[in-house]
Amino acid sequence: MKFVKKASGIALAAMLAAGLTAGCGGGGGGEKKAADAGKEIVVGVNAELTGNVANYGKSMLSGFELAVEEANKAGGVDGKQIKVVTADNKSEPSESGNAATKLVTQNKVVAVIGPATSGCVAAEEPVLTANKIPLIAPCATAPGITLQKDGKTKPFVFRACFIDPYQGDIMAQFAAKDLKVKKAAILHDSSSDYSKGLAEVFTKVFTANGGQITTDEAFLAKDVDFKASLTKIKATNPEAIYVPGYYEEVSKVIKQAREIGLTCPMLGSDGWDSPKLVEVAGKEACNNGFFTNAYTAEDKDPVVQKFVKAYQGKFNKVPDVFAMQGYNAGLILFNAIKTAKTTDGTKLAEAIAKTKDLQVANGKLTYDEKHNPITTALVLELKDGKMTLNKKIGG
Amino acid sequence: MESGFLHQLVQQLINGISLGSIYALIALGYTMIYGILKLINFAHGDIYMLGAYIGFVCTSILKLSFLPALIVSMIGAALAGMVIERVAYRPMRNAPRIAILITAIGVSFFLENVMILFASPQPRTFPAVFTATVYHVGAWVVNSQQIVILVSALVLMVALTYIVNQTRAGKAMRAVSFDADAARLMGIDIDSTISMTFALGSALAAAGGVLVGIYYNSIDPLMGMVPGIKAFVAAVLGGIGIIPGAMLGGIILGVVEALVSGFISSTFRDAAAFAILIIILLFKPQGLMGKNIREKV
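^ inputs. structure came back:
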């Protein structure tokens, strides 16, 4: 008991000390900024550094830090060094608003990168819009976050990734034009908006391209047995099956589809991107599997490889898609500061919206009028358990 | 495909029976424990998960083959079941039933979170203990794993029926379930009989867990939640407290799920399963096998 008390006392002291230094650091930074006005640009990162999606937030932050390091080494942006201030939103939307308020009021940031997840971005956005500070969400895919209720584009909100429906579009075209499939079946996760949205767009685009959907079946997250649905799908004789969803269920879908003798191509979305997919489904079962993604470290494109090497040099691991998008968000922001030649929020947001053919880690990037980037999409093919690049679209 | 409908029907029955036999294995434990303690043991689904993890350790780390792994996992889960009963339920023997029910929910959360802590929430890949051979019988497809599941489930159910009906311990279990006070007066050790029931029920759930691990190739700490509820439905469907009822309920549930997904829509699958439960309870509140003179365990 005594030990516990002591330990918690030490922990408390440590926390207090950390709080104090952080406080001092922040305050000091503020004063310094006043003194050195014009010498550095303070950018905030609101990230999921703890909590259940901490790995997304951490990767995103690492990617952004790499972009900052490169920009500062090259003499800064518009002649000024970039200074990063981070705030942890603990993977919770309620904390995300607080983190944004802290960045804006205490740290006086000129722009905010992050958070990674759409829910946290939605919670942060009102704070930044009220203060006229632009926000780039590197990997928030929900279509609604850049739009107001009346359908108009929010002036200060941008993202650095493609939106969910775009993937369904790409895969439908790939199925119709590259795989020359005429009849496809769909098996989607009816408990996930992501999966439902993709299935909808796939159906629309695939039928517009002359294809036919034989049947659209559904499952729920955490389901383990798909044989009944797959048997039904098999009876409709599809030439391909679209399974937008996350690897946990998809891996079992693929395994069981092959077991009941469905040999046709299996098509999917970026939720497939995990080594667990091949582990659970088995290498052979995964052959003839295709899915859309924004990026792969296996891409031999020199632009991509340059980013991968730089990232590995700094963090000693292969960058994932969140790191790539965090890095891209940095490039987008610095480019806009250069062209706007100011850090005034309104002008900066206008400059970001005008981003056109910007060279980013995975290709070229241009914003559409809804502040969604038109950027590279990849179709990856699973071959003997390896993800290989089959087709690159845009960028 | 002229005989498309008949062909599909048989294939869906194969799918449904293999799924249903797993529900039945878990439902047996529910029903036995309810029969003897009038307790709905919500931790039962997690014992199933625990069994799957013991099986995982046996096959992937200790490199045991299928049968030894199954037996070790059943023994491990039986011990766990006895410990849970001793620690969590026995002190509550005379408490109001709602208190024991809440304790059961607590045990369930405890097991799930301890497993998340030690084994991480990530799903694990179950090693392939035997290669899955696919048999084509006519136009139908049967997987060797489906056969193994069905055979193991049948053997275990026969063994259980034998233990309950033909052995002294089984007789004691039936007596305690029928009237605990009278059984005590007859000199039956109630505590050890209840302990024995938990051991048997948990061992069956663990067998279900290992079979599922092999069949679906992946296990995770929360894998027991949904099958736990489904098996509970199966037990109530067949008449809770009645052993053959749990088997029947499990198989019916599996077959209904497969047929509904196959012929109506997969979105109605769970709705149909629960709708059948409601209909049966409306017309036969004791469950399908519930009779006036109930032979309970």
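The domain at 165-293 of chain A is CATH 3.40.50.2300 (Rossmann fold). Residues 1-9, 11-36 of chain A have pLDDT under 50 and may be disordered.
thumbs up if we can close this ticket
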